[in-house]
Design goal:
The chain is of the alpha+beta class. It has 2 domains: about 140 residues, no CATH class; about 230 residues, Gyrase A, domain 2. About 50% of the residues lie in helices and about 20% in strands. The two termini are about 65 Å apart.
Length: about 425
Amino acid sequence: MEEGFCRPIRPREGLGVLKNIHWRLFVLIIALVVAATYVVVTRKPKLGLDIQGGMRVVLRAKKEELRSGKWSAESLETIAGIIRSRVDALGVAEPVIYTKPDQDQVVVELPGIRNKQQALDAIKTTALLEFRYVEELERDWRHEPEKINGRETGYEVILGPDGNPVSQEELEAKVFSKPPVLAGDELEPNSRAELGPDGTVIHFEFKGPAKRVFETFTRSHVGKKLAIFLDKKLISAPVIEEPIPGVGVIRGHFTPEQARTLASQLNAGALPVPLELEQQQNLEATLGRQAMHQTFVAGIIGLIMVLLYMAVYYRLPGVLADLALLLYTLFTYSVFVGGLSWLGFPGVTLTVPGIAGFILSIGMAVDANILIFERMKEERLEGKSLRAAIEAGFKRAFTAIFDSNMCTIITCIILYSFGTGPVRG
């Protein structure tokens, strides 16, 4: 043979190469089955609101009250990130938080939440902390704990010379029209609540440059009051006894729960704009424990019946289709519970519509096999060999299967783009 030409592969060698590829595919499938089984056994699925109950709120960002900078889609994502940090501090498992930029909305779904009012307050509070020097508090204004129905709210009310509360308009003109000494965005994210001898206090620490500003201010204002405001409501106005080197405590009329919430809000950061509550839904679980068990049993029975039908009616091809269907179910469910989290895909929150869609996809997979097998039977009746019938069956059924799946994908895209949380499930 002339040099430079490849030696032709003999039939036996070609068969060996093909056999080697089949073995590699077999080993790969076994490895994937083991990995998927491990994921399914060791991880629990994330359950949606309609399965375990909870709260769903829709908040609108009041961008017309933006304090500084320019509003953009990133601003809404910043708000969502702050809310996510606050929700994490509440200990809520698997919250769902997403934005609707076209409507300036943030949707928050909290499955299994118990104290709904505490969660709502933690989410929508702007948490703008300000340290201010108010000259009027040194002269004719005074402050005392605010009470509603005889119970302290955790804030203080500012009273004028006549003993009546100072109006918000007067506060805006005389207090909030001036720049604060420092604000909450200059704090380190390490605030914590602690129960002390004088009640619950919140420890705070300013960042590097702000420490010097705070120490300089307190050094020049020893013996005077430093007013601490949260969302333009007075928390306390302690007297500065000595210079404070950037680390201190906030003493207010807090309950331990209020102090922990405020500390987590300070750590998460202040919202750039106030949030307006547009919708709140307190959802009960659609499926109770018994109904969930019955649904699971019904799904298993249905799957077994489909597998038996395929095996009895189509025999060997049906058994092969059953194996493929079981692998499809295993792989898909492992992805749902976070099997691809190492690739950045966090998994799926299972809702009632989502479970229905999963079951529907199994039925569609069976339908594709039936189309192929029926085409194969028709080809065999026309006298073609088994190999030719298999090739023709796959080729001629492909168009119908492709069209069906494309229609499903298009429908899913439309529902996901224009639907709400439950529909997106």
